[in-house]
Amino acid sequence: MSFFDELKRRNVFRVGIAYAISAWVLMQIVDLVLENITAPGWIMQVFMLALAIGFPVALIFAWAFEMTSDGVKLERDVDRSESITQRTGQKLNRNITIVLGVAVIFLLADRFLPDADTKPQPAETTKENTEEIAATKSSEKSIAVLPFVDMSPEGDQAYFADGISEEILNVLVKTHNLKVAGRTSSFQFRNRSEDLKTIGEQLGVDHILEGSIRKANNRVRITAQLVAASDGFHLWSETYDRDLTDIFAIQDEIARAIASALAIELNLPGRQQSLVTASTSNMEAYDRYLEGKGLIAQRLDFTRSIRLLEEAIQLDPDFAAGWAAGAQAYSLSGYYLPVDRSEMLERAEAMANKALELDPKLSTAYSVLGDVYRDRYQWTKSRKSYLRALELNPNDVEANSQYAQMLWRVSYVKEGLKYSARAVELDPLSWLNLTVSAALRFASGDRAGGWSDIERARNISNLVRNFPARHAVRMALSDGNLKQAVKFTQDLSDSDYVMLRNPDLKTHYDDLLSRLNSRTETLAFLQDSQRNALYQGVDSPWAIDVFWAAYYGDYALAEKIMDAGAANDLRYGLIDTTWLNYAVLNPLHNTEPYKNMIRNIKLDDFWRENGFPEYCRPLGEDDFACN
265, 322, 319, 293: which is closest to 183 by C-alpha? Predict the structure, then answer.
């Protein structure tokens, strides 16, 4: 008898087949159980290794042993005339058939039944999470507009290419059932070599619109193509060679072509109505508008942005979007320029109202009014303005982000989370949105989520901005992590904003850093600094110093720092109360300086009308207490 025939006689092949099928079925069952009990991944790996080791053991056992009527015996001890290997083989055949049937059932269930994780989980059915789940489902129709490449002869039209890209993005934002990644996130991929699949994954979109613009004299050539992010498949492409005055018609045609390619129902009363209306007939005004608006989006050179937008509305006094963009530049300038904030806010309010006079449905203008009223401590008017902006355009990234910051300032943390999460969903690579989200998540008790967002914000800003570093310091001190807090204070000192624009602030932070590992030296420095340091408003060091005083347990000193700093900020024109919601400062909440600050910015009146935050409560008609 050949070796092969002997293997068959001893049922080695049958045992091998039975073992392999049974092992596969066991792995499916164990995987399901481990997944439901959230067991660590190494348990499954050990189980698979054990099954793999068992396979040759089973084959050796089948070769060396035989099942008899008296039990298992060594094969050499069994008389061939009494062997029952044939009957054993038949039993193995039946068992193989049964196990194979179970395996087929598993395969069919996996193929045709919906995944369990596509169903909403009972433990996560809060209002906020329900909305997030709905938003995630709708992201099947999603797109990012990458910055179009400037192909102009002089290569000096990048701002125009960016502006047209953003204009198309803004049109698509208003398209029903289409998720559009925000400008800040999409434009980070300018001149980068990532493949489209990677870009799609980072932005959370399924489709990419890319293209180029060639502008010369009064002619413009725009080439656009719509690509599936998953495989690079081209869904649509077109080249437009037109007069510059046709720029709005081109934007409309591109938006309609994308909607058609993605089979999206447009949110329009009639199919013939244009998605894009010509906001101005003056191309010089439009050119200045695009450049000025681009600078606002990047939070760069507000002086130039204001000048460009003032020129735009002089060229076309009926340019509503130009008035709104100018209003936004003025309202934000106080955070980036040494200007008279009250004058800036007054001009912003006037321009926003003029924009609404020309176009009553311009969401940007309402959002700017929200900014103006927020910074004047007119909290109720601010809230109404933001909500009107979001009613007109729920996908307005700026309105979602700024409203989240307003709610953060009035200590409505949970409500603010809803809007900060929406801003991050729409613009996931914005350092500003991520910082706001991080602070709100941290304050709400989601410390892990807060740290995740702040790390992303810090990596994206890369020491260019000081906003993420300021809140990272506060989070680390609230967690009692001295090493991290020192590191983030160093990052704050090394940020471009501090190093290049504020030498006094740089000196203050460097002097503080040299003492931070000693409680005695730190508190002594803060005591002197509290009397002598310059308090420069929104970026004053006092809102960091107060955290270090509190961390080292000197709440009397922290109270003095807060009192002096808040008084100076009130004169400067802005008290930023976003820092109030960190746990390390909780003991200050029931001090007189804190209560005076709340009264000075009329926050107690807002709370009486709309509800006190969780840590505060009213006392009679004109007093309150906070824990």
Answer: 293
* CB contact set of 66 (below 8 Å; sequence gap of 6+): 10, 72, 73, 74, 75, 78, 83, 85, 88
Give the CA angle between residues 16, 18, 19 to the nearest 5°: 65
Task: Find the mean pLDDT for residues 304-325.
Answer: 94
Enclosing H/E stretch for 506: helix 503-513
Give 209's contacts (C-beta < 8 A, 6+ positions apart).
Answer: 143, 144, 145, 146, 168, 224, 225, 226, 227, 254, 258
Report the distance separating Cα 586 and Cα 593, nearest Å: 13
Q: Which of 163, 426, 429 is nearest to 293 (CA)?
A: 163
- The string of pLDDT tens digits covering residues 361-417 is 999 999 999 999 999 999 999 999 999 999 999 988 999 999 999 999 999 999 999
On whether the CB atoms of residues 156 and 287 are closer than 8 A, the answer is no
Distance CA 296, CA 304 (A): 10
Cβ pair 516, 489 in contact under 8 A:
yes
Phi-psi group of 352: left, alpha or beta (phi > 0 → left; psi -120 to 50 → alpha; rest → beta): alpha
> Residue range 224-249: average pLDDT?
78
Average pLDDT value over all residues in the chain: 81
Q: Provide the 3-class DSSP secondary structure of residue 221.
A: strand
Contact 238, 217 (CB under 8 A): no
Question: How many Å is the maximal CA-CA distance in the chain?
Answer: 111
Residue 270: its pLDDT value, please? 40
The residue count for the chain: 627
pLDDT of residue 130: 36
Joined together, the tokens standing for residue 236 give 């649509």
Full-model pTM: 0.69
CB under 8 Å to 273, separation ≥6 — which residues?
Answer: none
